[in-house]
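Write out C-alpha cells for BZIP domain-containing protein.
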Amino acid sequence: MDVKKQAASSGSDGSPLSGVIDEKKRKRMLSNRESARRSRIKKQKQMDDLIGQVSQLRSENDQMMQKIAATEQSYMYVAAERDVLQAEAMALSNRLQSLNEFIFMAEEVHELAVDIPEIPESFVEPWQLPCQAPQFTASANMFHC
C-alpha cells in the first residue's frame, strides 16, 4: 500500500490528485508566462521612455549650444565695441588736455583770465571709474563757433 501512495503523490498514475497537481502546475506556468510578458512590456516601455528622453535632452543640448554660440558672438561684438570706445575716450581725453594747454598758453601770452575747470580723473582714465561713466550727447552744431 505504501507503493500506491508514492505513485499517487507523484501524479503519474492518472488519479484525481495528479490532475489537481497538473492543473496547478499548468496555472503556475501560465502565470509565469504572463508575468514574463508583462515584465518584457514594462522593460520595453522603460526603454522607449529613455530613448525619448535622450532625444529630448539632445534637442535641448543643441538649443543651448546655439544660445552659447550666439552669446559668444554678442560678447565678441561688445568687447570690440568697448575697445573702440576706450580708444575714442583716450583720443578725446588727449584732445581735451591739448585744448586746455592751448588755452593756458593763450592766457599767458595775452594775459587773459579764463576760468578753466580742472579735468577730472574720470575723463583722463575712464576705464578706472568706480561707478558708471557719465553719458554725453553731442549735437551737430556743438563744435561750431
